[in-house]
């Protein structure tokens, strides 16, 4: 650190009369020419997605944007109720729930499939995929772990997002190995686990993002980006038709004191 | 609160086999058919934007997504360095800097123009706009307040985003009263303030968003959404080519103890 | 920035065999010798509080630590439910509600009293305090603003914390001008506002902190520190006897779709 | 959820004229009578600590409160620079760095020792502790994992906090099995790892907190509470003698653009 100190970046830099981003001229090459979803992809992947890739990518973001009164949406609304002066705080509070349990499945599923595929030649037919899926699910079960992307508390038979996203990826020629393995897991897991579970939407989104070549360690980030838009919608609605105060009072007025030693 | 307790929403709801969002069927009507920027607009405005509106809106998001090593980007990277297990925490830390000073200009400027226009018939020619701008800037000056959207630490003569965004809005027939008043402020403020300042990019974004009819109290939210994509890019780069440790050590190794009573 | 770059601090610094904090040797002078509340005071005020000051200061922190199922406590619990892997995220989410509305009164009240006292000789008897209070409340009313620290949604007649904290400050010889003005406001405001409101606990805490000489712009910070302890208690209880899932389901299961155009 | 809906808690509840916390009357039993550190312990452990326990507990909090320009302190200051209107956001941003890497050692070490001791009779002499430590370190090494609490980037020979905290615990009769096992690890690890590393301060704090009977899954929470006080000190100093702008400019002005394909 001294004379030679430097901080390398391929993202935004600017001079008095030019702003550059990703090696492009922001105003001449990007504004009005690149969609927001496209840019988000580009910022992480360092390459502009094709129109087909953009369509699949944005379908994923749309699928993940809002799920109504999730714990994260309620947390954001309660924070906005308490601190209406800080929209950024309410949004951040909502995103902080984007962890392992409610929003992590996208990343967990993408990583799981990615690891299962690593160092292998992908099968060339459904029988091959089924055999691989069976091997993978059996191994996971043997380790006492769970297979991510299976089951959903509300969509107990089928998650409506799953076939639709697979269809979009298929139309665009982007139904790659992660989606194919995930589908095969959907066909074979019952043999190992003893019961049929639906492939959930968060999981299929992870598989689709992995097929787009996005880094699997950052898939949670795309779920968070999608959720940022959803939370903005939640906060706009909280201004228009608030529920935060009622949610809070419902809990507080039904508080029951319990002896700490019980 | 009791039997009749209910929490109204127009956003996401779901049943065992359907997911609805904004009154649409998520899988049949939205996925693969609506872009992510379009959906973000829709979630707040409760109406689908036209293609022209979407182009202006996404140009704004693209303009605001990343400005390189801003305090927020560095904060996000340092948080990721400390807690690499929690991507959501690093993203949230970055967004928490989206307050009054570095990211607030978009909202401040949109609100300022909105209030100036409230209850008036918009002028019909440049002379009329100039007269209104002069009145507004003079009044602001008299109150000892500053006019938001003027000046930039780096782009001292012209912010390259300003003419480009005005051009895009103009092409799309969306150069409305907020942008026109902002442009007029750009022409006349020197008469009042005694020096010529550029209209900055954050300000022109606020004016453009206000012209799209988005609620001015939430404009900061769109800057935050744009920044969420930029921060994701920053965190992806921090994984690929980290600077957080160097940034931290540069500060820590140059720490100098000062007597607290000095 | 270059050779001469330096970052001054009076807080923590360390060498291979010593850690210094506030100009003290951490291990020889502080650990085991200074209480945690004392250190928190010292870190902001840059001087060690006296035992009397510590007692008042800690009584304030104890008073503000936990108020049960507040919006911030529920937000922290919901975040922990969603992301149990990140205790720091749940704690941060809870603190983010420490804004203008539910937790800001302490700071608002301290600042209000501070500004009212600035540049004046404090009165020497109750009649003098009452006259000043009357003047201040009348002026606030005339500006259409509200007097911070008056009224409480639950403690409609008297907030039990108010007389107790004044008593502690009095016992310790620390009932200074901020508390005295606040008490006088309690006596006279009915003449101006037309109704009698209790002096609330958050307000009296702000007055007491201001009397301790702590910087009024940072009083919210002490409320946040107190709340950090309370939120830790809430999260410990969420592990032991969870309510987050029930709180979430209560809202989600009672969601009612409303047409966005209504 | 309906008639019978209830949310149990042993923490704060209130009625019109009483506030209860932990089964105590807040104003009669706690304010002015319980220190802040005592209360923080009580809120998690559900029992009031003894004076000896309080002394060890507060020594730990004091030890962990501030380490100068850590990544978390810098992140908090940069956030405050960007959004000075939201002290809670700056504090939250700083705490969000309290994850696995810089602040997690306390919890990791406490848990590690706790698991090693589970289901065993603690040894009765140093030879017994050394044998157990050897077994534990050998097993950890065999699994390819690292032993938490060993080594420090600055205190390469001895962390000055370690002997002091052990001394305080010893004086108070609270040098329990976790500390004793940790000390034994300090004596024997060189035999297994091939080099001598110091027992670090964060680790010894984790051992001491575990010996106090605090839940090991929440030890990170106490490190966060301690850090909340330290961050408040950092933010107070940022107001008084700011370094955020210089830290930001040091990085930004030394940014070097790198082709994304390199």
Automatic annotation (TrEMBL), chains A, B, C, D:
One of its GO terms (cellular component) is cytosol. Transmembrane segments: none annotated. Keywords: Lyase, Transferase. Pathway: Carbohydrate metabolism; tricarboxylic acid cycle. GO terms for biological process: carbohydrate metabolic process; tricarboxylic acid cycle. One of its GO terms (molecular function) is lyase activity. CDD domains: CCL_ACL-C. It is an enzyme of class 2 (transferase). Its EC number is 2.3.3.16. The keyword ATP-binding does not apply. Belongs to the citrate synthase family. PANTHER family: CITRATE SYNTHASE, CITRATE SYNTHASE, PEROXISOMAL. NCBIfam families: PRK06224.1-5 (NF004868). This is citrate synthase (unknown stereospecificity).
């Amino acid at each position: 650190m001294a004379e030679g100190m430097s901080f390398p970046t391929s993202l935004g830099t600017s001079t008095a009369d030019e702003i550059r981003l990703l090696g492009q001229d922001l105003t001449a090459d990007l504004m009005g020419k690149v969609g927001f979803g496209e840019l988000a992809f580009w910022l992480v992947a360092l390459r502009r997605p094709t129109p087909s890739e953009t369509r699949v990518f944005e379908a994923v973001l749309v699928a993940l944007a809002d799920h109504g009164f999730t714990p994260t949406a309620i947390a954001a609304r309660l924070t906005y109720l308490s601190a209406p002066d800080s929209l950024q705080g309410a949004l951040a509070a909502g995103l902080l729930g984007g962890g392992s349990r409610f929003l992590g499945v996208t990343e967990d599923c993408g990583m799981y499939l990615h690891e299962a595929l690593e160092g292998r030649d992908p099968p060339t037919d459904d029988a091959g995929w089924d055999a691989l899926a069976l091997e993978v699910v059996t191994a996971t079960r043997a380790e006492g772990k769970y297979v991510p992307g299976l089951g959903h508390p509300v969509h107990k038979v089928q998650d409506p997002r799953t076939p639709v996203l697979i269809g979009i990826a298929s139309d665009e020629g982007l139904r790659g190995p992660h989606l194919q393995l995930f589908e095969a897991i959907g066909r074979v897991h019952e043999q190992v686990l003893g019961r049929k579970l639906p492939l959930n939407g968060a999981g299929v989104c992870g598989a689709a993002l992995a097929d787009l070549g996005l880094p699997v360690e950052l898939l949670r980030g795309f779920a968070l980006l999608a959720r940022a838009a959803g939370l903005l919608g939640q906060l706009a609605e909280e201004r228009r038709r608030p529920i935060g105060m009622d949610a809070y009072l419902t809990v507080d007025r039904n508080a029951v004191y319990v002896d700490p030693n019980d």
